[in-house]
Design goal:
Radius of gyration: 22 Å
Number of strands: 14
Oligomer: single chain
Order of helices and strands: EEEEEEEEEEEEEE
Strand content: over 45%
Mean pLDDT: 92
Structural class: mainly beta
Largest sheet: 10 strands, antiparallel, barrel
Shape: elongated
Helix content: under 10%
Length: 248
C-alpha cells in the first residue's frame, strides 16, 4: 500500500544589511515648511519565513536603523535654527502571504507592524532641544511578483491610527508631555535581484505621512503654561541592501 507523504514546510531565514537615506519634513496647518531633516544611516534586518504547501507563507521581521541627520528648522518666533537630530527606528512586523495559484508568479500579503521611532533634536543657538518618541502600530496590504529569472517586485499600502507620542524637553524647560500622534498613511516599494543562490541585491523605498497630533497641555513644574502638539510630518526613506538567505 502506498502512502502519500505530507507536504514539507520550508523555513527560511534572511539577513539584510545596507545603507539608507531618509528625509523628514514638518509643516504647519497652512502647509508651510517648518523643519527639514536629512541624513544617511546603516540599516540591518532579519526576516523569518515559514511556508506551508504552495499557497501560504507566514513571515516575521525585525528592522533597525540609526543615524545623525542635519536639522534645518526655526524657533517659535520664526528665527532660523540649524542643528542635528539623532534618529533611531526599530520595526517589528508580521505578515501572511497567499499565492492564488500554485504556478502563479504573483502573491498577495497583509500584515501588521509596530515602529518605535525616536528623534532627539539637539539644542543650538541658545534654544533647548527635545526628545520625541513615537510607538505606532500600522497595517499594510500588498502584492508581489517574481519573474522567471527570480527578480522580485513588491508594493504595499500602509495605514495606522493615532498612537502614543512622548516629548521630553532638554534642560527641564518644560515637563514631559504625552500626546496622541497623527494618523499615518504610506506606500512602500521593494525590488531584489539574485547574485547567487544565497545572495541578493535589493532596493527599498517608503514614504510615510503622519497628520498633526492632538493638542495636550504644556506644563512647567505642574503648572499649565499653554498647549503643545506635533505638526504634520512626512518621512521618505530609500535603501540599498545586500541580502543573505539561510534557507533549507
Amino acid at each position: 500500500m502506498a502512502v502519500a507523504a505530507a507536504p514539507v514546510s520550508a523555513l527560511d531565514l534572511r539577513s539584510d544589511a545596507g545603507l539608507q537615506w531618509h528625509e523628514l519634513r514638518e509643516r504647519d496647518a497652512a502647509g508651510r515648511l517648518l523643519v527639514r531633516e536629512q541624513g544617511w544611516s546603516p540599516r540591518l534586518g532579519l526576516v523569518l519565513s515559514q511556508r506551508w504547501a504552495d499557497a501560504w507563507t507566514l513571515r516575521g521581521g525585525l528592522t533597525g536603523w540609526a543615524g545623525r541627520a542635519s536639522y534645518d528648522g526655526q524657533s517659535q518666533g520664526g528665527a532660523p535654527v540649524g542643528s542635528h537630530t539623532d534618529t533611531q527606528s526599530m520595526t517589528l512586523d508580521a505578515a501572511l502571504q497567499w499565492r492564488p495559484v500554485a504556478s502563479s508568479s504573483a502573491q498577495l500579503d497583509t500584515g501588521w507592524q509596530i515602529e518605535r521611532f525616536r528623534r532627539h533634536i539637539r539644542g543650538a543657538g541658545g534654544y533647548s532641544g527635545l526628545d520625541e518618541r513615537l510607538t505606532q502600530p500600522r497595517w499594510w496590504l500588498g502584492a508581489s511578483w517574481r519573474s522567471a529569472g527570480d527578480t522580485t517586485l513588491r508594493a504595499a499600502l500602509l495605514w495606522g491610527d493615532r498612537a502614543p507620542l512622548s516629548v521630553r524637553f532638554d534642560d527641564g524647560l518644560f515637563d514631559a508631555a504625552h500626546l496622541r500622534s497623527g494618523r499615518a498613511r504610506g506606500v512602500a516599494l521593494d525590488a531584489s535581484w539574485p547574485l547567487t543562490p544565497q545572495w541578493r541585491i535589493a532596493a527599498s523605498a517608503e514614504t510615510l505621512s503622519v497628520s498633526r497630533s492632538l493638542d495636550t497641555p504644556l506644563t512647567r513644574g505642574g503648572a499649565a503654561v499653554g498647549t503643545v502638539s506635533q505638526p504634520s510630518w512626512r518621512r521618505e526613506r530609500v535603501a540599498v541592501l545586500l541580502q543573505r538567505s539561510f534557507g533549507d
